[in-house]
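sorry for the late reply, my laptop died twice this morning and i had to redo everyting from scratch. anyway the thing you sent over, i finally got around to it. pasting the sequence first so we're on the same page, its 62 residues, then the predicted structure underneath. double check i copied it right bc i was rushing
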Amino acid sequence: MPKKTKGNRQQVILECTEHKESGLPGMSRYITTKNKKNSPDRLERMKYNPVLKKHTLHREIK
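ok and here's the structure:
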């Protein structure tokens, strides 16, 4: 379960979708916060993956 922060903000983990499919060792993950009231859906952001050396789509995991 994600860690609670002040008010409606909640800590979430973003995980790379392309890295998982590539079969390479390791995993690219980022930690950020989001407002559960304003955005109840899962976050999707383009973030840098240092293993693949390019920007890839990162999705929120539970």
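The beta strands are 9-16, 29-35, 44-49, 54-61.
thats about all i looked at so far, will dig more tmrw
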